[in-house]
Amino acid sequence: PTPLACTLFPYTTLFRSSLEPQVAMNMFAVDLYEKVEEFIPEINIKYITWTAEDTGKVSPTIYIEGREESD
Question: Which residues of the chain have pLDDT under 50?
Answer without folding.
Answer: 1-6
